[in-house]
Amino acid sequence: LADRLPVQRAARGEWVRDEPIDQVFADGTVLHTLVSASPLFDPAGAPRGAVAAIVDVTALKRAAADLRASEERY
Prior knowledge:
Shape: elongated
Number of helices: 2
Largest sheet: 3 strands, antiparallel
Helix content: 25-40%
Mean pLDDT: 95
């Protein structure tokens, strides 16, 4: 399972863009994110690590759900 995570895939040389990842915490809180990860290569061109950016889109998803619910009511 861990080898399918975006940063792990990038560390093997794969470019990952805007992959949705939902993180669920012990208290039931859900954090919706988009993850992008880029591989880092050594001088020979072999992957040697990765760098990632994670964007929290929880508020955006909630607003979209609220808008859909509002539109359904009217």
